[in-house]
Specification:
Number of domains: 1
Order of helices and strands: HHEEHHH
Shape: elongated
Helix content: over 70%
Number of strands: 2
Strand order of the largest sheet: 1-2
Distance between the termini: 80 Å
Radius of gyration: 25 Å
Structural class: mainly alpha
Number of helices: 5
Largest sheet: 2 strands, antiparallel
Amino acid sequence: MVDNTTVEKFNRNVPAAKGLRTAGQAVVLTLNICVIYGIVNAIRKTRRANPGKPTHPTLLVLSATCPLLFIRGVYGVMTGILPAFNYYNPHNYGMTGFKSSFVISEYIMGPTMEWCSCVLLMFTYFTCLKDLTSADVEVHSEDKQDQSGQAVEA
Protein backbone atom coordinates (compact mmCIF):
# COMPACT_ATOMS: atom_id res chain seq x y z
CA MET A 1 0.00 0.00 0.00
CA VAL A 2 1.31 3.44 -0.98
CA ASP A 3 1.23 6.18 1.60
CA ASN A 4 -0.50 9.25 0.12
CA THR A 5 1.63 11.65 2.15
CA THR A 6 4.80 10.14 0.67
CA VAL A 7 3.48 10.52 -2.89
CA GLU A 8 2.35 14.07 -2.20
CA LYS A 9 5.72 14.94 -0.67
CA PHE A 10 7.48 13.42 -3.70
CA ASN A 11 5.28 15.39 -6.10
CA ARG A 12 5.99 18.61 -4.16
CA ASN A 13 9.75 18.01 -4.40
CA VAL A 14 9.85 17.25 -8.14
CA PRO A 15 9.90 20.90 -9.33
CA ALA A 16 12.73 21.75 -6.91
CA ALA A 17 14.71 18.68 -7.97
CA LYS A 18 14.25 19.50 -11.66
CA GLY A 19 15.27 23.11 -11.02
CA LEU A 20 18.39 22.12 -9.11
CA ARG A 21 19.38 19.60 -11.77
CA THR A 22 18.86 22.15 -14.53
CA ALA A 23 20.87 24.76 -12.63
CA GLY A 24 23.72 22.32 -12.03
CA GLN A 25 23.79 21.26 -15.67
CA ALA A 26 23.68 24.93 -16.74
CA VAL A 27 26.81 25.52 -14.65
CA VAL A 28 28.52 22.57 -16.39
CA LEU A 29 27.48 23.92 -19.79
CA THR A 30 28.76 27.39 -18.89
CA LEU A 31 32.11 25.95 -17.80
CA ASN A 32 32.30 23.94 -21.04
CA ILE A 33 31.69 27.11 -23.04
CA CYS A 34 34.47 28.87 -21.08
CA VAL A 35 36.85 25.98 -21.82
CA ILE A 36 35.90 26.05 -25.50
CA TYR A 37 36.57 29.79 -25.60
CA GLY A 38 39.95 29.29 -23.92
CA ILE A 39 41.00 26.59 -26.38
CA VAL A 40 39.90 28.58 -29.43
CA ASN A 41 41.62 31.69 -28.06
CA ALA A 42 44.85 29.74 -27.43
CA ILE A 43 44.80 28.37 -30.99
CA ARG A 44 44.24 31.86 -32.41
CA LYS A 45 47.06 33.39 -30.35
CA THR A 46 49.42 30.54 -31.21
CA ARG A 47 48.76 30.94 -34.93
CA ARG A 48 49.21 34.70 -34.68
CA ALA A 49 52.49 34.36 -32.74
CA ASN A 50 53.85 31.58 -34.98
CA PRO A 51 52.57 32.18 -38.53
CA GLY A 52 53.17 29.26 -40.84
CA LYS A 53 53.89 26.82 -38.01
CA PRO A 54 51.41 24.02 -37.38
CA THR A 55 49.14 24.18 -34.34
CA HIS A 56 50.34 22.12 -31.39
CA PRO A 57 48.74 18.65 -31.49
CA THR A 58 47.52 19.00 -27.91
CA LEU A 59 45.46 22.04 -28.87
CA LEU A 60 43.99 20.11 -31.77
CA VAL A 61 43.04 17.21 -29.50
CA LEU A 62 41.52 19.60 -26.98
CA SER A 63 39.55 21.31 -29.75
CA ALA A 64 38.20 17.90 -30.79
CA THR A 65 36.68 17.52 -27.31
CA CYS A 66 34.81 20.82 -27.61
CA PRO A 67 31.78 19.62 -29.59
CA LEU A 68 31.49 16.50 -27.43
CA LEU A 69 31.50 18.45 -24.18
CA PHE A 70 29.14 21.04 -25.62
CA ILE A 71 26.65 18.35 -26.67
CA ARG A 72 26.88 16.80 -23.21
CA GLY A 73 26.26 20.15 -21.57
CA VAL A 74 23.27 20.97 -23.76
CA TYR A 75 21.84 17.51 -23.13
CA GLY A 76 22.22 18.01 -19.39
CA VAL A 77 20.20 21.22 -19.53
CA MET A 78 17.60 19.55 -21.76
CA THR A 79 17.08 16.79 -19.18
CA GLY A 80 15.68 19.31 -16.76
CA ILE A 81 13.61 21.26 -19.27
CA LEU A 82 12.27 18.85 -21.90
CA PRO A 83 10.01 16.03 -20.70
CA ALA A 84 11.27 13.67 -23.43
CA PHE A 85 14.68 13.58 -21.70
CA ASN A 86 13.52 13.64 -18.10
CA TYR A 87 13.50 10.67 -15.70
CA TYR A 88 10.44 12.08 -13.94
CA ASN A 89 8.29 11.93 -17.06
CA PRO A 90 6.04 8.84 -16.83
CA HIS A 91 5.77 8.77 -20.65
CA ASN A 92 9.42 7.71 -20.80
CA TYR A 93 8.52 4.39 -19.16
CA GLY A 94 7.04 1.33 -20.81
CA MET A 95 5.73 -1.89 -19.34
CA THR A 96 9.21 -3.21 -18.56
CA GLY A 97 11.05 0.01 -17.70
CA PHE A 98 12.47 2.82 -19.77
CA LYS A 99 11.44 3.05 -23.42
CA SER A 100 14.18 2.26 -25.93
CA SER A 101 14.11 5.79 -27.37
CA PHE A 102 14.81 7.27 -23.92
CA VAL A 103 17.67 4.85 -23.22
CA ILE A 104 19.26 5.45 -26.62
CA SER A 105 19.12 9.23 -26.30
CA GLU A 106 20.41 9.03 -22.72
CA TYR A 107 23.42 6.88 -23.62
CA ILE A 108 24.34 8.66 -26.85
CA MET A 109 24.06 12.19 -25.47
CA GLY A 110 25.38 11.46 -21.97
CA PRO A 111 27.98 8.79 -21.22
CA THR A 112 29.11 8.39 -24.84
CA MET A 113 30.05 12.07 -25.08
CA GLU A 114 31.82 11.88 -21.70
CA TRP A 115 33.66 8.68 -22.62
CA CYS A 116 34.85 9.98 -26.00
CA SER A 117 36.01 13.23 -24.37
CA CYS A 118 37.88 11.25 -21.75
CA VAL A 119 39.65 9.15 -24.38
CA LEU A 120 40.69 12.28 -26.28
CA LEU A 121 41.90 13.99 -23.12
CA MET A 122 43.98 10.94 -22.20
CA PHE A 123 45.45 11.04 -25.71
CA THR A 124 47.05 14.40 -24.83
CA TYR A 125 49.62 12.40 -22.88
CA PHE A 126 51.08 11.27 -26.21
CA THR A 127 50.88 14.71 -27.83
CA CYS A 128 52.86 16.22 -24.93
CA LEU A 129 55.63 13.60 -24.66
CA LYS A 130 58.04 15.65 -26.76
CA ASP A 131 57.28 18.75 -24.68
CA LEU A 132 58.00 16.91 -21.44
CA THR A 133 61.30 15.56 -22.75
CA SER A 134 62.56 18.96 -23.91
CA ALA A 135 61.37 20.59 -20.66
CA ASP A 136 63.34 18.01 -18.64
CA VAL A 137 66.47 18.74 -20.69
CA GLU A 138 66.10 22.49 -20.06
CA VAL A 139 65.58 22.01 -16.32
CA HIS A 140 68.61 19.72 -16.01
CA SER A 141 70.83 22.08 -17.98
CA GLU A 142 69.72 25.01 -15.76
CA ASP A 143 70.53 22.94 -12.64
CA LYS A 144 74.12 22.49 -13.83
CA GLN A 145 74.74 26.24 -14.14
CA ASP A 146 74.96 28.84 -11.40
CA GLN A 147 73.69 32.42 -11.60
CA SER A 148 76.68 33.59 -13.66
CA GLY A 149 76.09 30.88 -16.26
CA GLN A 150 79.18 28.85 -15.30
CA ALA A 151 78.93 25.12 -14.84
CA VAL A 152 78.63 23.89 -11.29
CA GLU A 153 80.12 20.55 -10.28
CA ALA A 154 77.62 18.07 -8.90
